[in-house]
Amino acid sequence: ALFLVLLLTMLNTFGVSAGVRLLLTGLIIVGVITAAGGQKALR
Q: What tens digit of pLDDT does each residue of 1-43 get?
């Protein structure tokens, strides 16, 4: 959660539009879940 807050703060500082921030946040969440699920499946 802290990582996402810092990421959104950084994107706000760069002046990125809200749509891009939401899309990027969603992609990161999906990526983390996929990575965690993939590691569990390999065990």
A: 788 888 878 878 877 788 888 888 888 888 888 888 876 655 5
Dihedral sign for Cα 30, 33, 38, 39, please: positive
Helices marked H in 1-43: 2-14, 18-42
Whole-angstrom distance, CA of residue 25 vs CA of residue 17 = 12
∠ Cα 29 2 21 (to 5°): 50
Residue found by looking up tokens 């499946």 in the block: 41
